């Protein structure tokens, strides 16, 4: 059980920095216990579990890891927690963004260095509600993942590429995943080595690499690379809610389109994803007018 202590280069909000890696409540690969964050991953060295805790008294971060991937996870810890991220590169052009950054100085962009770990759940989130996607991820890991190394028995590591490829069609259906999404995942895992190479590319090249897979478009690529690369400019386009939230927060107007959102974020070129994160943290969202979109369940069909 190797461990590591690391001192961040600046303020670090551990929960908000790593919280974007959690895929809903009950995520079998992510857990919070007290002040500790637990994450089960399939690393290049094999499965591993990482436990991270902040020690505010002296500014340290302490981590422990288990499994064949333990050393890899600990070696990647500084990058995961934003050592290579520079929040100061964003210049606030709106009072709301300035205030959000002042209130949340420790939010950094996590960089996992793993592609499929973020790509597969992002594909599951295509064109469905978050609850449907989280349920699918949970069921697939519980039924086809493997127990995570370490002391917490309920955690699961996602299948290796061959394991994803061997999931029968009826299991995808039982998890509520349609053929379009399962097909995109199967094409991605068959090219797993090529996909993982994107973790060592710049944003533009990595986006092209992911989008070479049919069924992976700009939305999925951005959602993946925000986490894999910690890419500050990987703004999500094609999202049902994000343009409306950005538009309302910055202008007070409803119904903002993707194009209008990109115009609003143009002053943050190079840092558009970071700006969007800060805007979301401001909590300024348009009041709900319509009922929540109903949750479908193709497993009943």
Automatic annotation (TrEMBL):
Record keywords: DNA damage, DNA repair
One GO location term (cellular component): protein-DNA complex
GO MF, any single term: alkylated DNA binding
Superkingdom per UniProt: Bacteria
Keyword DNA damage: yes
GO BP annotations, alphabetical order: base-excision repair, AP site formation; DNA alkylation repair
SUPFAM superfamilies for this protein: DNA-glycosylase (SSF48150)
Gene3D superfamilies noted in UniProt: Hypothetical protein, domain 2
Coiled-coil region list: none
Keyword Plastid attached: no
PANTHER family: DNA GLYCOSYLASE, DNA-3-METHYLADENINE GLYCOSYLASE
Name of protein: DNA-3-methyladenine glycosylase 2 family protein
Species for this entry: Streptomyces auratus AGR0001
């Amino acid at each position: 059980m190797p461990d590591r202590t690391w001192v961040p280069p600046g303020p670090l909000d551990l929960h908000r920095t790593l919280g974007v890696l959690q895929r809903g409540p009950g995520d079998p690969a992510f857990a919070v216990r007290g002040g500790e964050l637990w994450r089960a991953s399939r690393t290049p060295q094999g499965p591993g579990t990482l436990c991270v805790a902040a020690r505010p008294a002296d500014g340290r971060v302490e981590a422990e890891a288990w499994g064949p991937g333990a050393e890899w996870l600990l070696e990647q810890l500084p990058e995961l927690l934003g050592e290579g991220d520079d929040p100061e590169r964003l210049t606030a052009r709106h009072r709301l963004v300035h205030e959000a950054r002042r209130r949340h100085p420790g939010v950094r962009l996590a960089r996992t260095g793993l592609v499929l770990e973020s790509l597969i759940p992002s594909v599951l989130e295509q064109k469905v509600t978050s609850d449907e996607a989280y349920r699918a991820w949970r069921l697939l890991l519980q039924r086809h993942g493997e127990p995570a190394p370490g002391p917490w028995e309920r955690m699961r590591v996602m299948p290796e590429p061959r394991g994803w490829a061997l999931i029968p069609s009826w299991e995808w259906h039982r998890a509520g995943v349609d053929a379009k999404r399962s097909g995109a995942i199967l094409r991605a895992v068959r090219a797993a080595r090529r996909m993982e190479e994107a973790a060592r590319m710049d944003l533009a090249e990595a986006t092209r690499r992911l989008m070479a897979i049919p069924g992976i478009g700009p939305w999925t690529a951005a959602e993946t690379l925000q986490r894999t690369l910690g890419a500050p400019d990987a703004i999500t386009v094609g999202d049902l809610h994000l343009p409306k939230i950005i538009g309302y927060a910055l202008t007070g107007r409803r119904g903002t389109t993707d194009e209008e959102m990109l115009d609003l974020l143009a002053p943050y070129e190079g840092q558009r994803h970071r700006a969007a994160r800060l805007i979301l943290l401001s909590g300024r969202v348009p009041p709900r007018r319509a009922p929540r979109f109903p949750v479908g369940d193709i497993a009943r069909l």
